[in-house]
C-alpha cells in the first residue's frame, strides 16, 4: 500500500514532467493522475479497506494561475523576422526529436552551425528506430524550432536554415 508521502512525491514528479496522464495500481489501491492545461486532477481510491491508512478521496490539486492585465500598459511588439528566404528542414515522420546521438554526446548542430547537404542535424525516433535527418541544403542554422525529446509530426518544421 502506498503511503501518503509516496503519493505526494508521485504527484510532484508528474506535475514537473511532460506526462499528461498517469495510472498506477497495486494491492487494490489505484492512482490516476490526469493533467489538463494548468489544472492537475488527482483521484486516489482505496479499493480494499485498510483502517491503518487514511486516504482522502478524491482530491484535486490546482496549480496557481496568474493573470497579468496589460490593458493599461503600452505593448511594443517585436516584429518577426522574414523567414520566406529560409529553408525549413521538416520531419519526414511522426516520432520523437533528439538533438544528439546520446544524452552524453553533444548536439549535432546549434544555431550558427554551418551545414551541407549530407550533414546530420538530428534524430527522429519512430517505433524504436532511430532515423538520422540530414540538412539537404548547404547553409547556416538560424533557428531550432523544437526541443530535445519533443514529439514531432510529419512535415513539422524542425530547423530554419539560411541557404548559401
Automatic annotation (TrEMBL):
Keyword tRNA-binding: no
SUPFAM superfamilies for this protein: Single hybrid motif (SSF51230)
Pathway: Lipid metabolism; fatty acid biosynthesis
Signal peptide: none
Pfam families given in the database record: Biotin_lipoyl (PF00364)
InterPro entries per UniProt: AcCoA_biotinCC, Biotin_BS, Biotin_Carboxyl_Carrier/Decarb, Biotin_lipoyl, Single_hybrid_motif
Domain Lipoyl-binding: 86-162
Alphabetic keyword roster: Biotin, Fatty acid biosynthesis, Fatty acid metabolism, Lipid biosynthesis, Lipid metabolism
Protein purpose: This protein is a component of the acetyl coenzyme A carboxylase complex; first, biotin carboxylase catalyzes the carboxylation of the carrier protein and then the transcarboxylase transfers the carboxyl group to form malonyl-CoA.
Name used for this protein in its record: Biotin carboxyl carrier protein of acetyl-CoA carboxylase
